[in-house]
Amino acid sequence: MKKHEKPASQGVADKVQEEEHRRRTRFLLLFSASTSVILSGIGIKVLLNGMLGYGLALLTASAVTLFALVQYHLLKRRVLFENITVFAMSALILLLVATGGEKGTAALWSYIYPLLITYVIGLRRGIIYCTLMYIALFTIVLVPEVLGLQSPYSDEFKLRYLLSYLFTTLFSFVIESSRQASSDELLRLGKDIETASRMDVLTGLANRRHMQSLLDEAEYDYGRSETDYAVLMVDVDHFKKVNDRYGHSAGDVALQSLASIFANGLRQTDTASRWGGEEFLVLLRSSSASDALQIAERIRAETEQLEIPCDTDVAADEDDTTATDNVIRLTVSVGVALRHQGKSLDATLLTADNCLYQAKHAGRNRVCPQAFE
């Protein structure tokens, strides 16, 4: 990663949702542009045929649609663009059905409404809009006198139109419901895969790959505003003896117990990861030297107090302090490094690793703060 370059932090599921929004917007842009052209053409035609009110209404709808397109390209306000287009579309459909258009054929344009609305604004809002639209169309077609209108349709057409429109509306709900269910399932699977790619399966902590991305973010913040961060390199002492004496299952339980200390004992801004084997790396955001030392010492002390039951009848050697009385006891060595001016992320990690080595060499079960000297 280049220096001061913002690392990508958007998840896969978020990217999929954002792409879905873009796809809907692109569709609505194309639809609005096409509709504006078509309405302008039909409006001019009916004006020439002497239908002044009908023609002006079509040209007005075309102008509103064009306005929505212009404001979106200038302001990029997607929600406003969708609302204006949906409102214009709803008003236009009601007008077309109320007037009948040329020879009573304008109502045929209404069939695209439920398909468009449920796709553009989603199923829940789409159901509300389409229900209100159907009630309005039902009133206009069957009892127009309530609204002071005269129906241009025959009795046979009214029944067939309302039934076919109802079928189209219900079919639109089924299609959009199925599409959204498939989309939600893909998003859920994407989130599960994303979580699995970031999490260590055994401990539930961040894995090395995810921690590397978090370190890159911390480095970016440091380069932009010199926001300090510290890293703790934590290694379990004599862990091989635990595996050799009590088996890898007991070793796994021991690592999980240690992970619980990280999960419960760190600040919300901190992140612990399994760096490899029995080694853990902790990132402390916005941390001073004293904060880092205090957290490191707390981890060491709480680990020393752990008592992990194990099913074994094998007694421990006299010089083996990892287990007594069928209870595994652990200690950790911790190397601490603070991001200093003039250093890099790699140099900070190397310093923490060297401090860990010194803690091991000095007798283990201790914190080495050499990086702060």
From TrEMBL:
CDD domains: GGDEF
TM region(s), chain numbering: 27-48, 54-72, 79-98, 104-121, 128-147
Residue span, GGDEF domain: 227-372
Record-listed E.C. numbers: 2.7.7.65
InterPro entries: Diguanylate_Cyclase (IPR050469), GGDEF_dom (IPR000160), Nucleotide_cyclase (IPR029787), Rev_trsase/Diguanyl_cyclase (IPR043128)
Catalysed reaction equations from the record: 2 GTP = 3',3'-c-di-GMP + 2 diphosphate
Keywords per UniProt: Membrane, Transmembrane, Transmembrane helix
Organism placement in taxonomy: Bacteria, Pseudomonadati, Pseudomonadota, Gammaproteobacteria, Oceanospirillales
Organism annotation: Allohahella marinimesophila
A Pfam family assignment: GGDEF
EC class: transferase
Protein name: diguanylate cyclase
SMART domains: GGDEF
PROSITE patterns per UniProt: GGDEF
Record flagged with keyword Membrane: yes
